[in-house]
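Intended use. Records like the one below are meant for learning the mapping from a protein sequence to its folded structure. Do not use them to infer anything beyond what is encoded.
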Amino acid sequence: MDEKVAETFAYEFKTLVKNGRKVKFFVDLKKANAAQLMKCGVPENQIEISKFSTVLDNQDYFSHRKRERENRTNDGVDWGEEIVT
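Structure written out for the chain above:
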C-alpha cells in the first residue's frame, strides 16, 4: 500500500518495504482489526484471528497481491524486496 493509506495505521501494524527507489508499506490487518475491536469494547477473549493467509492459502482464498506478484514475475522482472523494520 502507498504511504498515504499507511499513515492511517499505527506504527506497530506497519512494515516498510524498499525495492530500489520504490517504497511501500504492508499492514498487519489482522492485528489492526483486533486492536480496533478491543478499543470498541470487545473483550480480547471474544476475538478470534484466523491462521489462514490469502497469499499462503491461495488454493482456498483469492489473493490479489499474490496474483500481482505472479504477473510481475512472468514479465521477466525480478521484483526482489528488502524488508525494513
